[in-house]
Amino acid sequence: MRQLSDIRGFTPALLSQLGKLSIHTPQALLLHLPLRYLDETRVTLIRDLRLGEQAQIEGVVVHNEVSYKPRKMLNVHVQDDSGILNLRFVHFYPSQIAAMQVGTRLRAFGEVRPGFFGVEMVHPQQRKVSEETPVSTALTPVYPTAAGVSQNTLRKAVQRVLTQDYLQETLPAWVYQDIHLPDFASSVQLLHQPTPETALNTLEDRSHPAWQRLAFDELLAQQLSMRLHYARRKQARAPAIAPSRTLVPALCAQLPFALTPAQQKVGAEITHDLTQPHPMQRLLQGDVGSGKTIVACLAALQLIEQGWQVAIMAPTEILAEQHYKKMHGWLTPLGIDVAWLTGSQPKRERAQSLARIASGEAMLAVGTHALFQDEVQFKQLGLAIVDEQHRFGVEQRLALRRKGQQHAIEPHQLMMSATPIPRTLSMSYYADLDVSVIDELPPGRTPVVTKLVADDRREEILQRVREACALGHQAYWVCPLIEESEALQLQTANDTYAYMQGAFPELQVGLVHGRMKPAEKQAVMQAFAANHLHLLVATTVIEVGVDVPNASLMVIDHAERMGLSQLHQLRGRVGRGAAKSTCILLYSKQQCSKIGRARLKVIYENTDGFVIAQADLQIRGPGELLGTRQSGVPMLKIADLERDAELLVHAKQKADALLARAPQSVEVHLQRWLSQGAEWVKV
């Protein structure tokens, strides 16, 4: 691909400036699109200016003065045939004072405000002109920039590459004409140089057909990259596993519950994948408490029966240990050795686990990120199960998968998530995965009642905790998330714990937080699970993997500080038994932002994880929802999944058609849009 350094006029200094914006090619420069536009195509008379609107005026400087009270500022009065306007500068240089001397003809663009001298503009854009200087014939683009890179530099750089040499069409006409979109060249030219008659609102809300064409192209490139990755995976080799005849029936016979129809359905999908000679890459979605763990266990048994090892990786020790205990309880009666591996294990115990995994004695290994360290060797890994997969980076997931790459055979991969993925996110960022959904909860799970309570009613809530514990139930008190400092969060947890011990002398109160040693944390959680503790004060470390059926009350302190997914996960820690359960969202009236209020409204009104995830996507955008997966998937710069949902449907359809009818166009299109395409389709 041609570089900017190959083009005349792009000096080392200019290349260095553009490098700050990661712009190194003509295509990257063309696709560095404006954030907004200034209408400098007309000059407005000063008497016709309207407060609050942006406008351009032209006149002669009749007064130029630096004043020092109440603070240093520069006031420049500009006069035209209809009146006088004050230009006020709080930050200025001597060169600016000199450039706006009395008698100079200026053109100024800015927002009109009321001021001490009448109407004024504060820090307007201004330049020296003559009476013959023509006004601009196009709207003026304002680009995203970085320190030391001026708008003028970007505008001139874009003009140099805005030629047919770099605007070639990558797609056959039928791809975009079928959905009534303009060609690429005219779309890019219009966005960089919109004519005065172009409706400014359609440019700013990105509904203009030119914006739509580029959003479509970007979504199409993403779809194509996902399709190619999917196709590559189908060409790789993995162990083809016949359905289980002994271990799965044996486990199902000893379970104290029957699988739900939804669990049976996704189990059949996984079984079918495992019979194929290429690697399964399936995402298993299920709301909090829907029973994903038993489905994963049944998948593991199918591999173990054929002599292959299985690894289960979880993001926290609490969740990993939860899996280990369940797997150990289910599989030990079947004669299967389950190994436990975390970073905090005693050296001797860890060495024993490593030896059992390497020899193949342990058929199932459960642990945290410690599982993909170099020292961990599997004899024959056939399946990697990753829970809460969005918490792990692409490289971490790849490292675990590489543990099983022997003799050109890859392990199957099953990813699990209790954070449901909205449809548009699933169609775009997860298009390379097969997705299974457990869409019902096991029978006997009681719905959790959610209450919103302002923190001026804290005493009432303390009384609710006292009453619940007096009835023999248990309660969680979740401390606020403090983004600025883990130390502050720790202090808050300790302070809350001390306060609760004083407030409830008759109750046994426990404390758990992320900084505790694993053994301490484990001891507290075991005491709570065994009903030796009435109240557990905790940080968000209990968000996943804690299962205490007797806990029927949760209070989330400063709930407005937490994300929707986190609130939903926390709420899922109660309602696991037969008792009626309540989750109280305690919020601060003073500190609750507009977004905080929106989140609380969603969580209060909904218990469906998919509805909550969709609302989360609208509030936060895809970046945060994807977690660390985003480092392995192209993030969208132009398209917006909510706004452009219809274009995404078209892109999905056209990607299949393009691969079938014009495969030569695919590579050209991907080169334009995915400069690091090979990196982006790794996982």
TrEMBL record:
Keywords in alphabetical order: ATP-binding, DNA damage, DNA recombination, DNA repair, DNA-binding, Helicase, Hydrolase, Isomerase, Nucleotide-binding
Similarity field: Belongs to the helicase family. RecG subfamily.
Domain Helicase C-terminal: 460-618
The encoding gene: recG
Catalyzed reaction equations: ATP + H2O = ADP + phosphate + H(+); Couples ATP hydrolysis with the unwinding of duplex DNA by translocating in the 3'-5' direction
Stored InterPro entries: ATP-dep_DNA_helicase_RecG, DEAD/DEAH_box_helicase_dom, Helicase_ATP-bd, Helicase_C-like, NA-bd_OB-fold, P-loop_NTPase, RecG/Mfd, RecG_dom3_C
Pfam family name, one: Helicase_C
Domain of life of the organism encoding this protein: Bacteria
SUPFAM superfamilies, A to Z: Nucleic acid-binding proteins (SSF50249), P-loop containing nucleoside triphosphate hydrolases (SSF52540)
The keyword DNA repair appears for this protein: yes
GO MF: DNA helicase activity; hydrolase activity
UniProt enzyme class: isomerase
Function: Plays a critical role in recombination and DNA repair. Helps process Holliday junction intermediates to mature products by catalyzing branch migration. Has replication fork regression activity, unwinds stalled or blocked replication forks to make a HJ that can be resolved. Has a DNA unwinding activity characteristic of a DNA helicase with 3'-5' polarity.
The keyword Lipoprotein appears for this protein: no
Residue ranges of every copy of the Helicase ATP-binding domain listed in the record: 273-438
EC number: 5.6.2.4
Organism: Methylophilus aquaticus
Name of the protein described by the UniProt record: ATP-dependent DNA helicase RecG
